[in-house]
Amino acid sequence: MHKKVQDLFSIYLGTHDFHNFTTGREGGQAASKRYITQFEVSKPLVIDGMELIKFSINGQSFLLHQIRKMIGTVVSIVRYNQSEKIILEALRPDRLIHTPVAPGLGLMLKKCLFDNYNLHAEPGAKITYENIQEKLNEFENEVLIPHIIKTEKESKVFLEWAENCHKFPEEEILHGKTKKERNREERASSIVKDEVDVLQQVVVKSEVDVLQQVVKSEVDVLQQVVVKSEVDVLQQVVKSEVDVLQQVIVKSEVDLPHEVKREADLPREVKSESCENKNET
């Protein structure tokens, strides 16, 4: 296990683009590149009943959260037994990968190195830690490490983080798309969305026009039906009135010949008398 962890950290050695191991940096920028010269992993140490592992990192300079994300990434890969290629993908300037941030407990700047300066400095002007190295080790072992252990026992911040640390979507990372490819797909998707919106507006307008035409046609048909109904009713009324008038006329014609007939049936004398009476009158 120790060798595997050491091998994983060795991937960070050299100059790489660490934009996925910090915040606010884009891949491919010079400001995202850092040079790591050394990365050592100690064997497990048991101090005051707690098992510790020391990570010693030497680099030209570091970005915000860079060391915590480098350690967090290795811990996640080891914990979930994932591929070391995840680190290689995360170091690519054209990939955008979320990397977990390990807790800051235990992280400290142990010393600053002035190797380039010392190469040209006078013997008495070189900056080294030789005279105080023993005191530095004493401070680390008697003050810093006990404080780290005490804080971890009380807060369990590192234990809880390790139990719930981010698991990489390995399949997506190893077989996914680069940032450039995703940007191209996003632009294409945006164009398609705009075209779909335009088509939907056209379709909606067409549907509204068709609906208006259908409604107009139905209104015209209803108007025709209403007019026809009114005509039919009027015709029916006229027909009824004509029938009544015809009945009245027929009845009148029937009654008139009946009276004439009754007068024609009277005796001739009565008829003559009636005529004479009329003359006298």
Please give a structural write-up.
With 281 residues, the protein is mainly alpha-helical. Helices cover 60% and strands 9% of the residues. It is built from nine helices and five strands. It has helices at residues 2-10, 66-79, 85-90, 115-120, 133-155, 157-163, 170-175, 179-264, 268-280, and strands at residues 14-17, 33-41, 45-47, 50-52, 55-59. The protein has a three-stranded antiparallel sheet with strand order 1-2-5. A two-stranded antiparallel sheet has the order 3-4. Strand 3 and strand 4 form a beta hairpin. Helix 1 crosses helix 2 (66-79). The protein is rod-shaped, with a radius of gyration of 54 Å. Mean pLDDT is 84; it is low at 274-281.
Question: In summary, what is this structure?
Answer:
This protein is mainly alpha-helical.
